[in-house]
Amino acid sequence: MLVLGIETTCDETAAAVVERQDDGSGRILSNIVHSQTDEHARFGGVVPEIAARAHVDLLDGIVAQAMMEANIGFAQLSAVAAAAGPGLIGGVIVGLTTAKAIAMVHETPLIAVNHLEAHALTPRLTDALDFPYCLFLASGGHTQIVAVVGVGHYERLGTTVDDAMGEAFDKVAKMLSLPYPGGPAVERSAAEGDPERFAFPRPMLGRPDANFSLSGLKTAVRNEASRLMPFEPEDVSDLCASFQAAVLESTADRLSVGLRLFNDRFGPPRALVAAGGVAANRALRVALQDVATKAQTSLIIPPPALCTDNGAMIAWAGAERLALGLTDTMDAPPRARWRLDANAAAPAGYANTRAGF
Ligand code: KG4
Ligand code: ZN
Fold first, then answer.
1. Ligand 1 center to 251 CA (angstroms)
2. Fewest Cβ atoms nearer than 10 Å: which of 176, 209, 304, 329?
3. What is the second-level CATH architecture of the domain 133-301?
4. Would you say the CB of residue 187 lies under 6 angstroms from ligand 1?
5. Does the beta carbon of 9 lie inside 6 Å of ligand 1?
6. Ligand 1 binding pocket includes 281 (Cβ within 6 Å)
7. Do 310 and 9 touch, CB atoms closer than 8 A?
């Protein structure tokens, strides 16, 4: 099975070809990612309109490159998959429309993939992981704990009630005049700071649900930063270190609750899986390892290139769905919002635009 995957939901323009064997194993034949970071850097965040235009400019060339590197022609494709949401709607439209055109011209099935489902299924490509497992997804747009029970069978155990975790890192970086994207800059600065200098709140600590909240913490950092201005040299690194320490402690608490909820519903998970850009944070990885060990499970973090947005994860999710006969029709809608657990296994062409975040 050969599937072309297209990803355009945020600021990465990406296409990839993945091969799936009958035994369920997979192989990446090509994986081309163009990150638009430079286009957005001077705005300190992703500008949806700029992203959509860049996808229009770049996508055809990236698809051609992915096909060339995989050394296959369109006629050999078993299907074409595109991320149909959730994400910035302009970009989603560009990717999904391109996939529909390819499907139509080359008479190959279309698969409208939920971007979150693609993150969720990635460890089955990289580590041949069996169901069920617990996913912690933390990126610029999402912060969720998801029980991955089977293809199309997901249960969201927790989510952020306000900002996404990567977004909080980016906002803290911006208020401290650190470069975009903020996560890596905050992590670097934190490594030199004192995590105990500021006693920032640990949001949601001890709550029985597994939800996250980051905006109060972000505001606490902002208030402290305005109080300190103008900064002494160590102020920025101490603010970063104290912010990151609060994020880590809160995350560890939320995940241990999430894993307990998982266990109650589905039995022991095969692994705790982390994905999304924030999973690149080394201090977070250490904290996650600790959480996994305490919950007597193993920690799997796919390689960074497959943790952040890419086309291979979309192609792979497409292949997993195709193997179950789950294809979509040409009226599959682009969706800004699309809850993973609402209807990921929906029948072909199913449209539910009122699904939440
Ligand atoms: O998954 P991703 O590449 O793109 C999407 O948001 O979909 O995630 C990017 C996010 C950004 O908010 C970035 O600041 C954050 O991940 N990030 C990090 C680190 N590296 C990237 N956050 C904390 N520590 C890091 N080392
Ligand atoms: Zn993503």
1. 15
2. 304
3. 2-Layer Sandwich (3.30)
4. yes
5. no
6. yes
7. no
